[in-house]
Structure formats: structure tokens, C-alpha cells
Specification:
binds coenzyme A; 29% strand
Amino acid sequence: MLKPIKVRNFLSQKVGVLVPLLDEELISDKDVQQIKNIFNSHDVYDRLFKRTLKNRAFTLENVKRYIKWSVTQTLNKNNITYIIRDKNTIVCGGIDLQKVDSETATIGYWADPKTPGFITNAVKEIIKVAKEIGYKNIDAYPEEGNEKSIKVLNRLDFKYVEKIIKPDKVLLKYLTS
Ligand SMILES: CC(C)(COP(=O)(O)OP(=O)(O)OC[C@H]1O[C@@H](n2cnc3c(N)ncnc32)[C@H](O)[C@@H]1OP(=O)(O)O)[C@@H](O)C(=O)NCCC(=O)NCCS
């Protein structure tokens, strides 16, 4: 059973919590608005959504669909999503673990640019969860030039594996086991 996990912000040293998205009721209207703001922030939007949304803004409806889908996926453990809440319970990031096969999962993450400092520690916690579930390998695919993401992986001893060239972008595969 997935449970909330305490996580410390490296910069502020304040303690937040990683909450598995197991129930839509855990997400208030205020959370939906906050996630919308984070997803539309320059850092996150450009890296994660710009291409698929073709420069259209992430709407409240998009966020609600994202939450619904994430809860379903987390309940059946295909794609596990945790949100990070700070000490005032404000959503300030998220981590997801996507099943590739029985031995491998891909990790992804996003953060409120106004609240840096949680992600490396949060990813470390979710890697422990992944190991408990039985995954042997965790990989990640930051885009070439995504230095913020690459720094997270370097801090956690992920090793660079290879460059993956897609029609519209170049991804860097990193792996830890
Ligand atoms: C990638 C992303 C999640 C990183 O968020 P972040 O807040 O910079 O990450 P962290 O909390 O780990 O680190 C913030 C700062 O805290 C410090 N820090 C955090 N944990 C630390 C640790 N264990 N040891 C030392 N310093 C640490 C560092 O100073 C770090 O800044 P630096 O990376 O410039 O050195 C964020 O930039 C983002 O949302 N990007 C858009 C989405 C994205 O690219 N996702 C990844 C797709 S693969």
C-alpha cells in the first residue's frame, strides 16, 4: 500500500510530504488552481507541455483530467504519481514512476519554480518505493539541455547511458539500479 512520505526541502530545510494520488478527493479546487499555475509556469510548460499543447495554456479542465488519469493509474500501479505538499500543504511539485516492464520504471518530476529544493530528496524517496515494489532499474529521459533535470539525476548517481534522437527532440537516457 502506498503511503505518504515525509520529504525535506534541501534549501529551506522545511519538511513537506509526498502524497500518493490514490483518491481524487485528496485534491481540492485550490490544489487544481495551483497545479495549473505550476504547469503554465515557463520552466515546466516549456519542458513538458509546449509541444503537445502547441502553445495553448494548460486549463483547469486539463488539470482535472490529469488528476483523474493519475489516480486511476496509481490505483492500478501502472504509473504511480505522488504530489509534494509543503509545510502549509501547498502543492509544490510532483514525481511519477511509469512502469516499463516488471523490472524497469521511468521516473519523471516537476516543481513549482517558486519552491525549489524538494525534488532531489523526493526522487530519492520514490526510488526507495520503486525498489520495494520490485523494480530493479529506474531510468529517466531528460531532454538534451535540461540542465536542472540532469543536475537532479547527477546528485542521485544516475549514470548517462545514451542519446535518443527523436524527430523533434534529443533525449538523454540515464539509469540507476
Ligand atoms: C527539473 C526540476 C523538477 C528540478 O527542480 P529543482 O527544484 O531545481 O530541483 P531540486 O529541488 O533537486 O534542486 C534545487 C536546488 O536545491 C539544491 N539541492 C537540492 N537537493 C540537493 C542535494 N541533495 N544536494 C545538494 N544540493 C541540493 C541545489 O542548489 C539545487 O539547485 P541546482 O540544481 O541549480 O544546483 C524543475 O526544474 C522542473 O520542474 N523543470 C521542468 C520539468 C522538467 O524538466 N522535468 C524533468 C523531465 S525529465
